[in-house]
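Exercise 7.
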Amino acid sequence: MENDLLKLTKLCELYGLDKKDGFSDTYIDEIKLFKVSSNDQLMPLLYKKGFSFVGQGKKIGYINDIKFEHGSTDYLVITSPQPVECETYILGEQELIGIYVNLDMARLQRVVRKFSKFFNTESRNKEIVFSITCNIKTDVIQQIYLRLITVLEDKSEANMLCDGLLDELYYRILQSNNGAMLEQLCQENSNISKISRVTEYIVHNIEKKISLNDMARLADMSINNFHRLFKQALNDTPIQYIKKIRLYKARQLILYNNMKAVEAAEVVGYENTSQFSREFKRYFGIPPSKIKV
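Solution. The predicted structure, written as tokens, is:
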């Protein structure tokens, strides 16, 4: 554990997070470094598809009535973009530092094709599950994680070795109890794949009017079946999800792009700025004009 934390602290110095909190790019596009140096009350985050690892400390996430905890002995698998309210708990004097591996669908499909040649996956659970799962960090996955944070210290080693390490990470997660989720993401007609396709469309077309009919048609499902499976996977109705994504995106634009609330509202698809301000305040607790980094 101590070796793990020393490596993460060195990475913060290397990637410019030693004197600030937040996310930073690394030598590898798929991997982000993050740091939080103080206990945070509920903070809104938008998780992308991927895997999250922390070295020390704990995050508690809330999605309506669902709660999950994430610490150094486990890792998260996220199969759809997911708005989450998070609390951060710092243990001792060490900051919470970790890495986030963005899910590369091309890599996942390549690994799954190989995986399916050697393992019979027909008996695995095909039921749709919640889009975020917390998984025990086995010894073998811990070793991959340690090797990843080690090679990220050097640009040439990162570029030479990370590709193989990421393939191995995907393979080991496919072997886990929740590996079936990743397999189904690669199956065009699976329910998880269909719901994920809709969430990705929403995230990338948030400025458009998207109806329930549009979403069900994109998923190739009846409206009732789509609504039920969407709620099962994301613990939000499709309309609630769209509203959350709009508000999260607007918040990011105001905070990090110095955009005025009126402009941000328009960018994310609100036609009525008064409605935007009301919903923003209701969800985040403060009006858009009062938020700051």
